[in-house]
Amino acid sequence: MNRTLNSTSQWQQEDREHHLHPFSDIAQLSEKGVRVITKAQGVYLWDSEGEKIIDGMAGLWCVNLCYGRKDLAEVAAKQMRELAYYNTFFQTTTMPATALATLLSQVTPDGMNNVFFGNSGSESNDTAVRLVWRYWQTKGQPKKTVFISRENAYHGSTLAGASLGGMSYMHEQGPLPFAGFEHIEQPHWYFNAGDLSPDEYGLLAARKLEDKILKLGADSVAAFIAEPIQGAGGVIVPPDSYWPEIQRICRQYDILLVSDEVICGFGRTGEWFGCQSFGFEPDLMTMAKGMSSGYIPISGVMVHDRVVEVLKGSGDFNHGYTYSGHPVSAAVAHANIAALRDEGIVERVKNDIGPYLQKRLQEFADHPLVGQIRGRGLIAALELVKDKKNHQRFDKVGEVGAMCRNHCFENNIIMRATGDAMLLSPPLVITVEEVDALLTKVRTCLDLTAKDIGVM
Ligand code: PXG
């Protein structure tokens, strides 16, 4: 690709004429013009104007390792030369697909020894739905079909992903969610708990699941799915009491527990998987993003032995994707996961750089806009509020977050805004100096936002 051929405005014009973007307003984007990213290294991106941007979001929560690893590029090139494609249908495999399955069984929690491959987080969640349905059919309980998930959850953009998800602004754009997809409250202590302590509220929020199961009848409920920490929904870190109670309820009512590890997986929270940070043992885990650090599309559903044992009696499972276990994607994911393991990157998130980021974020506690600071490992949120004392949101939710995000854009830092929460999820190799640089820019953007609305 000859990047110098066109000027930024020419790229923007071509893009305007031919490219429809995800989650974007076509007219608005067309008027503004897209930003053209041209290269990346470590935790930094560069755009077509030569601006250097610090990426506080690891792409879309996915570049766990970091940008610019030549060894991953070489693995891809070598695999493409040797065997660019073959499938895993019809009693066939390729060496990279099987090697990756084996490696995944080693880095995932005990009892998780089998994977079903896909190409995106959305596909992995669709696969999880179909696996769970097949599980209950095989067990002779075909009426157990309902999935329960949470408000504001993001589980993808396919029809099942969007139905599992709890984003009302997605549901509104079609007849969604499909029947059989139910939602309960997200465990957002800061706004929802009133006078309850975090642990009291965690139990209360978990028992919303029990209420829902009792309302629907346990004999119709197949599974509960949730992210250990809800990512796109605003980095909602549940109280410690939440997950053990969720697990108790799932076991008591014979409901499968699916952990969506698409964001939390592969070291983000300081353990290999988010469920390990919160002390629960899912029956299935869906994974994508950090599985290849975004270098190439790949995803998977990890299935616990107790589920696999049942599925062994189910005959053909009529599901799969042309690129399930694609050899190039599998080879790159293998190299990425081996690097996360061999370079001690997950341990560093747990013991060193994660605690450093979380500690330094506490310095924002006295900022006039910041109501709550939450996070774990290298995922975090600063909740911007109108009234810190009374945990009160701004009148028009999302407006101040958008202002702050615009300042981030102007100041060459990438943060994501969900409502008025400003989110961070940087690459896992970020250094102390880079965290410092990141937070200096965060402060600049918060201060500019505070000045805009006259509280500073
Ligand atoms: N589950 C979770 C928890 C996710 O965060 C998906 C599933 C779907 O993955 P794919 O690969 O199909 O996109 C995701 C994706 C955002 C944003 O704005 C978040 C995601 C995707 C796009 C935007 O925060 N998460």
Tell me about this structure:
This protein is α/β, with parallel strands linked by helices and 456 residues long. The protein has 2 domains: 35-68 and 345-452, Aspartate Aminotransferase, domain 1; 71-342, 3-Layer(aba) Sandwich (Aspartate Aminotransferase, domain 2). It is built from 17 helices and 15 strands. The chain has a 7-stranded mixed β-sheet, sandwiched between helices. Strands 1-2-3-13 form a 4-stranded mixed β-sheet. Strands 11-12-15-14 form a 4-stranded antiparallel β-sheet, with helices on one face. It starts with 7 loop residues before the first helix and ends with a helix. The relative contact order is 0.14. It binds 3-[O-phosphonopyridoxyl]--amino-benzoic acid. 3-[O-phosphonopyridoxyl]--amino-benzoic acid is lined by residues 60, 120-122, 125, 154-156, 227, 231-232, 260, 262-263, 288, 416.
